[in-house]
């Protein structure tokens, strides 16, 4: 047989190999489908409900839910944006007493879930709390009729608590943006006679606008996702409406319709944020620029700057940590409750499994897309991050309803074939919980993997392949050692978010299955803050580890 005869089958095999999708690309597409499926399920159920109560919702509760959600988003966005950008400007541009400590202390509210801050604020300001008790003793008042005190469980209090918990998103992005601004812009403004506030308002703020807008958008999306805070303050939002319509009215279709409204609101917010950045761009025209020299603030001005940074830190971290830790110490017996440690084991198990699977899925997706080299798989990367924008309650609807239907079909099929009633395997276990965490926080793992792989030269992978390494061996022996730090950071961040997640956990947990977050919520809902405190302390401890890692990465 001639050489030409041998080469023809070989060319045919190569052509077939190129035509067939790569297994890594197929796996990446499957992972992306898992992430997107709950969102599509919500839309499908909302459009084709078994019982359409949309006209009833529009005429009764939906306007109130929608209006309160818009007020909450606007209030949190403005207050968190003002606190975060103001603190970032002071820390980045001035020297004042305590600046070096406050630069990192201002990140600590990220360690405390907003719902814990809500419980602490009510405990601190309620009638029997230390503030009102001290006022009565100081002025000789006998009852609440002798004085006026603002309503604690209100929309305003919810905005303050959520802003205090979420302003670090704005602060972190704005601080980096202010740091990177060239000193020449500040010097030109000074030469034109602009004062400190004018330089902030006309130069620093516009240049940092994209970062501040991104931080505000994150804070507003987290405010939409919140359930524990608004539920405790009796503020009816779209998220509380999902719980009310589904669990109290037993109408999954109506819950999906409200969830679809939440999803549409979040998508509009994301598009507005991206559109604002597209219309307004600023460029640094020099590859090397001198940073802005910090101005020393002394006397009353320096003390004022310190106090301005201490206020959000005190509201977001010191107050809730002090109140919760005090209850945890006063209720030492609660630490011996076996249900607390069982909830801790559940949290470690479910959160750990979800974190590992999410990070592995993110690495697989990014690696598979890079191997394919085609345009369609590359579209999967931004689409697969949609889960992070979807609130936990929305994902709960999109996961539980389809999964329950599959579970019943599976159980009926097995029972018909074997006569064994296996029960509900998917929704009767923590599987749905792990899946919701996977979808909700996949963007964190995918972003970390994409950034880490982007820093690695493709020549290293080509060299490994030329030495006979397979694609899997190249990932294990070349990529992983170089991105180990990013993988560890992503694992910790995803795990911490899983520990703090409340709405999806409340909807998807199996019967009598508690995590630390649900235990805090359940005990606080019964006005038993002493019983909730130990679990809250454990949640805060896990959050502090993540904030420490975040601070280290942003030095």
TrEMBL record:
Any one GO cellular component localisation term in the record: plasma membrane
Domain of life: Bacteria
Pfam families, per the entry: BPD_transp_1
Membrane topology value: Multi-pass membrane protein
Limits of the ABC transmembrane type-1 domain: 66-274, 344-551
Protein's cellular compartments: Cell inner membrane; Cell membrane
Transmembrane segments: 21-47, 72-92, 104-122, 155-174, 200-221, 254-272, 296-325, 345-367, 379-404, 424-445, 478-496, 532-551
Cell inner membrane keyword on record: yes
Main localisation: membrane
A GO BP annotation: transmembrane transport
PROSITE patterns: ABC_TM1
Keywords: Cell inner membrane, Cell membrane, Membrane, Transmembrane, Transmembrane helix, Transport
Family: Belongs to the binding-protein-dependent transport system permease family.
Name used for this protein in its record: Iron ABC transporter permease
């Amino acid at each position: 047989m001639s050489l030409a005869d041998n080469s023809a089958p070989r060319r045919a095999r190569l052509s077939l190999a190129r035509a067939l999708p790569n297994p890594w690309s197929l796996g990446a597409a499957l992972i992306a489908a898992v992430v997107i499926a709950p969102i599509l399920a919500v839309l499908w159920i909302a459009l084709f409900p078994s019982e359409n109560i949309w006209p009833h919702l529009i005429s009764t509760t939906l306007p109130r839910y929608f209006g309160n959600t818009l007020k909450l988003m606007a209030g949190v966005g403005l207050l968190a944006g003002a606190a975060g950008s103001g603190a970032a400007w002071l820390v980045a541009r001035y020297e004042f007493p305590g600046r070096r400590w406050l630069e990192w202390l201002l990140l600590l509210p990220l360690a405390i879930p907003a719902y814990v801050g809500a419980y602490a604020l009510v405990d601190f300001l309620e009638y029997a709390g230390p503030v009102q008790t001290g006022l009565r003793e100081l002025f000789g008042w006998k009852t609440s009729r002798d004085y006026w005190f603002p309503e604690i469980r209100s929309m305003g209090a919810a905005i303050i608590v959520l802003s205090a918990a979420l302003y670090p998103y704005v602060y972190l992005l704005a601080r980096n943006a202010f740091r990177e601004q060239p000193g020449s812009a500040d010097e030109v403004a000074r030469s034109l006679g602009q004062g400190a506030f004018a330089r902030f308002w006309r130069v620093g703020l516009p240049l940092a606008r994209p970062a501040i807008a991104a931080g505000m958008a994150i804070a507003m999306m987290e405010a939409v996702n919140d359930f524990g805070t608004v539920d405790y303050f009796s503020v009816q939002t779209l998220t509380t409406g999902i719980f009310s319509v589904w669990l109290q009215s037993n109408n999954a279709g109506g819950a999906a319709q409200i969830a679809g409204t939440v999803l549409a609101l979040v998508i509009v917010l994301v598009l507005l944020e991206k559109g604002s950045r597209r219309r307004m761009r600023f460029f640094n025209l020099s590859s090397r620029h001198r940073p802005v020299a910090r101005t020393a603030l002394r006397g009353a001005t320096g003390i004022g700057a310190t106090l301005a940074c201490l206020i959000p830190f005190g509201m977001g971290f010191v107050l809730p940590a002090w109140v919760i830790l005090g209850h945890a110490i006063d209720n030492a017996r609660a630490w011996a409750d076996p249900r607390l440690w069982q909830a801790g084991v559940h949290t470690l198990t479910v959160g750990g499994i979800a974190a590992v699977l999410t990070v592995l899925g993110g690495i697989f997706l990014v690696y598979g897309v890079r191997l394919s080299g085609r345009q369609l798989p590359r579209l999967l990367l931004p689409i697969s991050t949609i889960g992070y924008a979807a609130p936990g309650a929305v994902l709960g609807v999109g996961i539980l309803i389809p999964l329950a239907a599959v579970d019943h079909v599976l159980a009926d099929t097995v029972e018909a074939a074997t006569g064994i009633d296996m029960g509900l395997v998917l929704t009767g276990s923590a599987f749905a919980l792990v899946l919701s965490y996977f979808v909700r926080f996949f963007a964190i793992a995918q972003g970390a993997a994409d950034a880490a792989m982007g820093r690695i030269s493709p020549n290293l992978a080509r060299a490994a392949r030329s030495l006979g390494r397979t694609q899997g061996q190249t990932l294990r022996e070349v990529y992983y050692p170089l991105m180990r730090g990013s993988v560890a950071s992503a694992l910790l961040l995803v795990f911490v978010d899983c520990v703090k997640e409340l709405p999806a956990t409340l909807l998807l947990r199996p019967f009598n299955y508690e995590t630390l977050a649900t235990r805090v919520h359940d005990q606080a809902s019964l006005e038993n803050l002493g019983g909730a405190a130990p679990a809250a302390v454990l949640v805060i401890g896990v959050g502090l580890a993540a904030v420490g890692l975040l601070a280290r990465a942003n030095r």
